[in-house]
């Protein structure tokens, strides 16, 4: 349905270029295309669950108001001569901005369940840059000594402000997580078409008499009107697409950081202030110095904020990488690297405090047979369940780590052979799924290296396996106080 509507929409825009140069015919066609687009948006929303329809209803309201405003503008001008601002059509045209902005805000909120400060800073940076352009070339010139009253000024200024609102929310939408299928890009293209059409009228307005002449040229006016028709129709194409409901689905992962396109856009927005300053200097005088200075200061602060957030994210990811490098992926316990760092520190503390320290090596009995019987996924589940059960029986100061395969090591600070055996017996009794382990326990003799201590515990482990498994063996060569 979306493809068929897209083909018909393209055909309608082409036909519009060849209609008679009659304002009533053109108005009827523009309004008809707008209302057909509204019908398509509502039809697409109707296929979605009720809770997912709100953003599409808001889009439909905005398009309906804008398209209806075309009819109101023509009737007001042709029948009543109402062409000075504000016209009866302006409320309809301006309704587009809050309605579409509301729909975008709902989509952004649903796509990103958690706040994204970096995305907000990026949107603010781009909006600030374009905001300076709007102020210097659109808003400020409207207040320079003309005869228009305040309501007319407010109406004229409302349009560029509405465009800035859409720029901010469009940028924020592009920085959101979630699905980026065809409907997402159709919505983005529609917003871009609205902004392009408004920008074109602004440029023509700033060209003075030449711009007015160009705007009254039939084929140029027809082309600009077609831009808005395309914007209407793209919303309908997006709503009718089978993947339309995925646009509001929450993100599975955070969006990517500073890509090349985003970096170029941010750099361009940051250069707008100096570019305006250069342009005004080249034409003989800086007339908006305070505005340029204020915008430059805001952009500078936003760039600093973005750098701070980026550095914080880099630090967070570096911390995660450090944690991953020291954690066993399956069990979540410290891995061999973390153990090799911790054991020498524990021995040094024991030497300084004059306390014993014990080390045990555990090995699940008949683990290969268990894997062969129940499969490797079941073996992985056993390792996870056993390590969690053993960890629960130990003290907070004790450390258990996965040494490799089905082998684990336990560090027992301030524990001699007797305390160490009791701790291991509790762990042995807690082993799940009717399984057992063999263990070798060694108490540090205050002279040997950490490798030598582990070797003695490992030798005791093999003796436990040889003597029948499901048992704990004390390593030979213990110090005289090891049984304490």
Give a quick rundown of the structure.
The protein is of the alpha+beta class. The chain has helices at residues 2-16, 23-46, 54-80, 90-111, 117-139, 150-174, 182-206, 209-216, 218-240, 260-270, 272-282, 289-325, 336-353, 367-374, 376-393, 417-430, 450-466, and strands at 357-364, 399-404, 407-413, 437-443, 472-474. The chain has a five-stranded mixed sheet with strand order 2-3-1-4-5, with helices on both faces.
What does this structure look like?
By secondary structure, this protein is α+β, with helices and mostly antiparallel strands. Helix content is 67%, strand content 6%. Helix 17 links the parallel strand 4 (437-443) and strand 5. Helix 7 packs across helix 8. The chain starts with a helix and ends in a 10-residue tail after the last strand. The model is unreliable at 479-484 (pLDDT under 50).
Rg, Å, rounded: 36 Å
Strand order of the largest sheet: 2-3-1-4-5
Q: Approximately how much beta-strand content do the residues carry?
A: 5-15%
Count of distinct strands: 5
Order of helices and strands: HHHHHHHHHHHHHEHHEEHEHE
Task: Tell me the major beta sheet.
Answer: 5 strands, mixed
Low-confidence stretches: 479-484
Q: For the record, what CATH class of the largest domain applies?
A: Mainly Alpha
**In the CATH hierarchy, what is the architecture of the largest domain at level 2?**
Up-down Bundle
Instruction: Give the helix tally.
Output: 17
List the helices and strands and how they pair.
Layout: H1 2-16, H2 23-46, H3 54-80, H4 90-111, H5 117-139, H6 150-174, H7 182-206, H8 209-216, H9 218-240, H10 260-270, H11 272-282, H12 289-325, H13 336-353, E1 357-364, H14 367-374, H15 376-393, E2 399-404, E3 407-413, H16 417-430, E4 437-443, H17 450-466, E5 472-474
Parallel strand pairs: 4-5
Antiparallel strand pairs: 1-3, 1-4, 2-3
Helix pairs in contact: 1-2, 1-9, 2-3, 2-9, 3-4, 4-6, 5-6, 5-10, 5-12, 6-7, 7-8, 7-9, 11-12, 14-15, 15-16
């Amino acid at each position: 349905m979306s493809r068929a509507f897209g083909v018909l929409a393209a055909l309608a825009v082409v036909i519009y270029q060849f209609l008679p140069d009659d304002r009533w015919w053109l108005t009827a066609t523009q309004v008809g295309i707008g209302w057909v687009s509204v019908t398509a948006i509502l039809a697409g929303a109707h296929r979605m669950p009720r809770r997912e329809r709100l953003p599409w209803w808001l889009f439909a309201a905005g398009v309906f108001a804008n398209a209806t405003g075309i009819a109101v503008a023509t009737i007001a001008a042709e029948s009543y001569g109402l062409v000075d601002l504000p016209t009866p059509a302006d409320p309809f045209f301006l309704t587009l901005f809050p309605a579409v902005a509301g729909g975008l805000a709902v989509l952004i909120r649903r796509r990103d369940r958690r706040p994204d400060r970096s995305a907000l800073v990026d949107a603010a940076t781009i909006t600030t840059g374009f905001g300076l352009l709007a102020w210097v070339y659109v808003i400020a010139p409207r207040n320079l000594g003309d005869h228009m009253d305040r309501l007319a000024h407010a109406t004229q200024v409302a349009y560029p402000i509405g465009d800035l609102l859409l720029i901010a929310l469009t940028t924020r939408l592009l920085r959101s997580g979630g699905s980026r299928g065809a409907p997402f890009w159709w919505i983005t293209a529609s917003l871009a078409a609205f902004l392009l059409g408004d920008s074109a009228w602004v440029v023509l307005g700033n060209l003075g008499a030449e711009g007015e002449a160009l705007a009254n040229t039939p084929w140029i006016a027809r082309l600009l009107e077609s831009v808005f028709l395309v914007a209407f129709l793209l919303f309908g194409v997006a709503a009718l697409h089978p993947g339309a409901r995925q646009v509001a689905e929450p993100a599975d992962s955070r969006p990517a950081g500073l890509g090349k396109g985003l970096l170029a856009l941010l750099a361009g927005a940051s250069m707008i202030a100096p570019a305006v300053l250069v342009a005004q200097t080249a034409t003989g005088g800086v007339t908006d110095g305070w505005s340029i200075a204020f915008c430059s200061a805001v952009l500078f602060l936003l760039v600093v904020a973005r750098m701070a957030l980026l550095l914080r994210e880099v630090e967070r990811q570096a911390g995660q990488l450090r944690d991953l490098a020291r954690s066993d992926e399956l069990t979540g316990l410290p891995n061999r690297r973390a153990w090799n760092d911790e054991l020498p520190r524990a021995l040094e503390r024991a030497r300084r405090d004059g306390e014993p320290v014990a080390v045990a090596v555990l090995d699940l009995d008949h683990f290969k047979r268990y894997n062969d019987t129940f499969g490797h996924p079941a073996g992985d589940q056993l390792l996870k369940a056993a390590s969690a059960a053993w960890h629960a029986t130990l003290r907070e100061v004790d450390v258990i780590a996965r040494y490799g395969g089905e082998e684990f090591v336990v560090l027992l600070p301030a524990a001699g052979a007797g305390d160490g055996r009791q701790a291991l017996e509790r762990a042995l009794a807690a082993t799940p799924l009717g399984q057992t382990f063999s263990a070798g326990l060694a108490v540090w003799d205050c002279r040997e290296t950490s490798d030598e201590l582990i070797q003695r515990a490992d030798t005791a482990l093999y003796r436990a396996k040889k003597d029948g498994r499901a048992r704990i063996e004390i390593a030979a060569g213990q110090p005289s106080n090891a049984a304490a």
